[in-house]
Amino acid sequence: MSDAIRMAFGELAGDYDHVHHDAVAHALLELAPPGAGDAVADVACGAGAVALQVAERLSASAPAVLAIDLSEEMVAVGRARAEQRGRIGAIDWRVAPAVPLPVEDGSLDLILCASSLHFLGMAALADWRRALRPGGRVGFTLPLASQFRPSGTFAELVATDLPIPEDAEQALSVASAAGFADAESRVVTVGSRAVVAVVASKR
Protein backbone atom coordinates (compact mmCIF):
# COMPACT_ATOMS: atom_id res chain seq x y z
CA MET A 1 0.00 0.00 0.00
CA SER A 2 2.75 2.47 0.88
CA ASP A 3 4.43 1.98 -2.50
CA ALA A 4 1.14 2.62 -4.28
CA ILE A 5 0.57 5.83 -2.32
CA ARG A 6 4.14 6.98 -2.94
CA MET A 7 3.84 6.43 -6.69
CA ALA A 8 0.36 7.93 -7.00
CA PHE A 9 1.28 11.17 -5.28
CA GLY A 10 4.69 11.31 -6.87
CA GLU A 11 3.00 11.48 -10.25
CA LEU A 12 1.00 14.51 -9.09
CA ALA A 13 3.99 16.50 -7.85
CA GLY A 14 4.68 18.37 -11.07
CA ASP A 15 1.10 19.57 -11.46
CA TYR A 16 -0.09 19.95 -7.87
CA ASP A 17 -2.97 22.30 -7.05
CA HIS A 18 -1.06 24.61 -4.69
CA VAL A 19 -3.85 27.19 -4.59
CA HIS A 20 -6.36 24.67 -3.21
CA HIS A 21 -3.98 23.02 -0.76
CA ASP A 22 -2.60 26.34 0.49
CA ALA A 23 -6.18 27.47 1.18
CA VAL A 24 -7.00 24.22 3.02
CA ALA A 25 -3.81 24.62 5.08
CA HIS A 26 -4.78 28.20 5.96
CA ALA A 27 -8.23 27.07 7.11
CA LEU A 28 -6.74 24.29 9.21
CA LEU A 29 -4.30 26.67 10.89
CA GLU A 30 -7.10 29.11 11.67
CA LEU A 31 -8.69 26.31 13.71
CA ALA A 32 -5.46 24.81 15.07
CA PRO A 33 -2.84 27.58 15.24
CA PRO A 34 0.61 26.69 16.55
CA GLY A 35 2.10 28.39 19.57
CA ALA A 36 5.19 30.46 18.78
CA GLY A 37 7.58 27.89 20.26
CA ASP A 38 5.69 24.68 19.47
CA ALA A 39 7.27 21.51 18.13
CA VAL A 40 5.09 20.82 15.08
CA ALA A 41 4.80 18.04 12.50
CA ASP A 42 3.13 18.27 9.10
CA VAL A 43 2.19 14.65 8.36
CA ALA A 44 1.84 13.48 4.76
CA CYS A 45 2.94 17.00 3.93
CA GLY A 46 2.75 16.80 0.14
CA ALA A 47 4.27 19.99 -1.23
CA GLY A 48 4.39 21.52 2.24
CA ALA A 49 1.32 23.76 2.29
CA VAL A 50 0.93 23.39 6.06
CA ALA A 51 4.64 23.33 6.92
CA LEU A 52 5.32 26.54 5.00
CA GLN A 53 2.55 28.43 6.76
CA VAL A 54 3.53 27.05 10.17
CA ALA A 55 7.14 28.13 9.59
CA GLU A 56 5.93 31.68 9.06
CA ARG A 57 4.14 31.67 12.43
CA LEU A 58 6.81 30.14 14.68
CA SER A 59 9.48 32.04 16.56
CA ALA A 60 13.10 31.83 15.47
CA SER A 61 13.88 29.68 18.52
CA ALA A 62 11.18 27.08 17.81
CA PRO A 63 12.21 23.64 16.54
CA ALA A 64 12.16 23.20 12.77
CA VAL A 65 8.79 21.99 11.50
CA LEU A 66 8.92 18.28 10.70
CA ALA A 67 7.47 17.83 7.19
CA ILE A 68 7.21 14.17 6.25
CA ASP A 69 5.89 12.44 3.14
CA LEU A 70 6.37 9.16 1.30
CA SER A 71 6.84 10.90 -2.03
CA GLU A 72 10.34 12.10 -2.82
CA GLU A 73 8.91 14.16 -5.67
CA MET A 74 6.45 15.97 -3.41
CA VAL A 75 9.12 16.72 -0.82
CA ALA A 76 11.38 18.10 -3.56
CA VAL A 77 8.62 20.48 -4.63
CA GLY A 78 8.10 21.50 -1.00
CA ARG A 79 11.79 22.19 -0.51
CA ALA A 80 11.85 24.36 -3.63
CA ARG A 81 8.84 26.34 -2.40
CA ALA A 82 10.50 26.81 1.01
CA GLU A 83 13.67 28.06 -0.63
CA GLN A 84 11.69 30.57 -2.69
CA ARG A 85 10.13 31.89 0.53
CA GLY A 86 13.36 31.95 2.51
CA ARG A 87 12.12 29.23 4.88
CA ILE A 88 14.38 26.32 3.98
CA GLY A 89 16.10 26.20 7.38
CA ALA A 90 12.81 26.37 9.28
CA ILE A 91 11.54 23.03 7.96
CA ASP A 92 12.98 19.53 8.46
CA TRP A 93 11.98 17.74 5.25
CA ARG A 94 11.92 13.94 5.35
CA VAL A 95 10.99 11.26 2.85
CA ALA A 96 9.55 8.52 5.04
CA PRO A 97 6.30 6.77 5.99
CA ALA A 98 3.87 8.84 8.02
CA VAL A 99 3.08 5.95 10.37
CA PRO A 100 4.82 5.65 12.69
CA LEU A 101 6.20 9.15 12.90
CA PRO A 102 10.00 9.14 13.39
CA VAL A 103 9.81 11.04 16.68
CA GLU A 104 10.11 10.22 20.37
CA ASP A 105 7.02 9.55 22.46
CA GLY A 106 5.49 12.73 23.85
CA SER A 107 7.80 15.03 21.89
CA LEU A 108 5.38 17.12 19.82
CA ASP A 109 3.02 19.95 20.71
CA LEU A 110 0.99 19.94 17.51
CA ILE A 111 0.48 17.42 14.69
CA LEU A 112 -1.21 18.62 11.53
CA CYS A 113 -2.45 16.64 8.54
CA ALA A 114 -4.25 18.31 5.65
CA SER A 115 -6.04 16.34 2.94
CA SER A 116 -4.39 13.01 3.76
CA LEU A 117 -5.85 11.33 6.86
CA HIS A 118 -8.43 9.42 4.79
CA PHE A 119 -5.51 7.62 3.14
CA LEU A 120 -3.65 6.95 6.41
CA GLY A 121 -6.53 5.59 8.49
CA MET A 122 -7.05 5.25 12.23
CA ALA A 123 -3.53 3.92 12.82
CA ALA A 124 -2.24 7.43 12.18
CA LEU A 125 -4.41 8.90 14.92
CA ALA A 126 -3.24 6.26 17.38
CA ASP A 127 0.38 7.05 16.55
CA TRP A 128 -0.24 10.79 16.91
CA ARG A 129 -1.44 10.23 20.48
CA ARG A 130 1.88 8.47 21.16
CA ALA A 131 3.91 11.30 19.66
CA LEU A 132 2.08 14.17 21.38
CA ARG A 133 2.88 15.46 24.82
CA PRO A 134 -0.03 15.51 27.32
CA GLY A 135 -2.27 18.38 26.29
CA GLY A 136 -0.79 18.42 22.80
CA ARG A 137 -3.11 18.96 19.88
CA VAL A 138 -3.92 17.33 16.57
CA GLY A 139 -5.45 19.12 13.61
CA PHE A 140 -6.63 17.45 10.41
CA THR A 141 -8.99 17.82 7.49
CA LEU A 142 -11.24 15.25 5.87
CA PRO A 143 -13.34 15.44 2.72
CA LEU A 144 -17.11 15.51 3.03
CA ALA A 145 -18.82 12.31 1.94
CA SER A 146 -21.26 14.20 -0.28
CA GLN A 147 -18.40 15.54 -2.40
CA PHE A 148 -15.86 12.75 -2.13
CA ARG A 149 -15.53 10.93 -5.45
CA PRO A 150 -12.08 9.32 -5.64
CA SER A 151 -11.31 7.51 -8.85
CA GLY A 152 -8.78 5.07 -10.21
CA THR A 153 -5.81 4.34 -7.98
CA PHE A 154 -6.89 6.88 -5.39
CA ALA A 155 -10.19 5.09 -4.79
CA GLU A 156 -8.25 1.96 -3.97
CA LEU A 157 -5.98 3.81 -1.54
CA VAL A 158 -8.69 5.22 0.74
CA ALA A 159 -8.47 3.72 4.24
CA THR A 160 -11.33 1.37 5.02
CA ASP A 161 -11.32 1.88 8.80
CA LEU A 162 -11.96 5.63 8.87
CA PRO A 163 -15.47 6.84 7.96
CA ILE A 164 -15.69 9.79 5.59
CA PRO A 165 -17.91 12.26 7.49
CA GLU A 166 -21.21 13.61 6.22
CA ASP A 167 -20.83 16.77 8.30
CA ALA A 168 -18.76 18.51 10.98
CA GLU A 169 -20.46 16.56 13.78
CA GLN A 170 -19.50 13.20 12.31
CA ALA A 171 -15.92 14.39 11.90
CA LEU A 172 -15.76 14.94 15.67
CA SER A 173 -16.44 11.24 16.20
CA VAL A 174 -13.26 10.37 14.31
CA ALA A 175 -11.22 12.28 16.89
CA SER A 176 -13.13 10.94 19.88
CA ALA A 177 -12.93 7.35 18.63
CA ALA A 178 -9.14 7.71 18.64
CA GLY A 179 -9.13 8.91 22.25
CA PHE A 180 -8.80 12.66 21.71
CA ALA A 181 -10.77 15.19 23.75
CA ASP A 182 -12.10 18.76 23.46
CA ALA A 183 -12.64 18.37 19.74
CA GLU A 184 -13.90 21.19 17.54
CA SER A 185 -14.78 21.06 13.87
CA ARG A 186 -15.98 23.29 11.07
CA VAL A 187 -16.82 22.88 7.41
CA VAL A 188 -14.66 25.03 5.15
CA THR A 189 -15.45 25.75 1.50
CA VAL A 190 -12.45 26.20 -0.76
CA GLY A 191 -13.50 27.13 -4.27
CA SER A 192 -16.05 24.55 -5.36
CA ARG A 193 -14.96 22.00 -2.77
CA ALA A 194 -15.68 21.66 0.93
CA VAL A 195 -13.68 19.93 3.65
CA VAL A 196 -14.16 19.58 7.37
CA ALA A 197 -11.34 20.70 9.67
CA VAL A 198 -10.94 19.21 13.14
CA VAL A 199 -8.78 20.09 16.15
CA ALA A 200 -8.59 17.99 19.33
CA SER A 201 -6.35 17.49 22.34
CA LYS A 202 -4.55 14.54 23.86
CA ARG A 203 -6.05 13.66 27.23
Describe this structure in words.
It is built from eight helices and seven strands, in the order H-H-E-H-E-H-E-E-H-H-E-H-H-E-E. It is α/β, with parallel strands linked by helices and 203 residues long. The protein has a seven-stranded mixed β-sheet with strand order 3-2-1-4-5-7-6, sandwiched between helices. It is globular and about 40 Å long. The chain starts with a helix and ends with a strand. 40% of the residues are buried. The mean pLDDT is 92.
Q: What's the structural blueprint in terms of helices and strands?
A:
Blueprint: H1 2-12, H2 18-31, E1 40-43, H3 49-57, E2 65-69, H4 72-84, E3 91-95, E4 108-113, H5 117-120, H6 122-131, E5 132-143, H7 152-157, H8 168-177, E6 180-190, E7 193-202
Parallel strand pairs: 1-2, 1-4, 2-3, 4-5
Antiparallel strand pairs: 5-7, 6-7
Helix pairs in contact: 2-3
